[in-house]
Amino acid sequence: MYRPPFPRLPRSPRRFHVPRRSVSTSGKPATTTPTPHAPTTFDSSTLSIPQNPPGQGRYIKTAAALVIGDEILNGKTLERNSNYFARFCFELGIDLKRVEVIPDEEDDIVQASRRMVDKYDLVITSGGIGPTHDDITYASLAKAFGQRLAYHADTLARMEASFKDRLSQEDQTEEQRTARKRMALFPEGAEVLFVASDLWVPVVRLQGKLCVFPGIPALFQKMLDGLKPFLALAPPETRPLRVQVYTTRPESNIAPYLAQLQARVGAEGIRIGSYPLLKQGVYVSLIGRDRERVVGVAAEVERELDGTVVVGPKGGEAAEDSKSA
Questions:
Q1: Which SS3 state, helix, strand or coil, does residue 148 take?
Q2: Which of 18, 28, 106, 212 would bridge 204 by S-S if both were Cys, CB 3.0 to 4.6 A apart?
């Protein structure tokens, strides 16, 4: 799976359990060094992969992403998950049709989730499944699809096993323990998919297509990759090919040719795009499912624009597109 080179952000401060100090025979405090613990792993031998949700012989064709969080909309947090999901969909031959960012508001979550589930084959949500008051994704989705909330026993057991080496019962009040348990309070009719043997957090799936993910990028990416066996994916040979051609010519100079080319090959399902680098040149992108035809059109573009294929059958690593609109 291609992992985009995201910039590193400063880590948020973490709370650590401070061990009680013991007193040595000399009367001076003696320090206690915490013992590192190995990551908790869970038995995955009993996990079963559900039958194809869309139906036998049918595959996921369209997708949408619903990013939930006030922190995205007010600029506090850089949103990375939709980009990772877009790359995930492209590589698997799924057309990502829509990405929405909405606040931590019940009505917004209810309305957007219903609309997306009605329209697309695969829907993911990102964010709002933690232990705090503004983590309302599970409750809002339960309301959206007429379900009650219920604690999931396996998730609770995995959670407790994961936390036992970090927190003891006396370290938390009853209110704090209840808050933690909220992360295992799911819509009762949902599927609970444990997609990684070293994570207690599951992917919760409703209506056979809406998959709920955490907002933390590292968790989101790991769990999304782990979801693949649970998805009805088209055969690899039917997935699209993307080829990019780089040219040093200005975008305005190549625009007429690209417009004529799109009109000529659009009926074949080939999409042409141009993505300029400021004062450096342009990447011309060609995407289509007929792989041989895409390669042939790319050769024409390479020749007509005095360019070079940089992504595709004879190209190297993809350059980051610089144009966002």
A1: coil
A2: 212
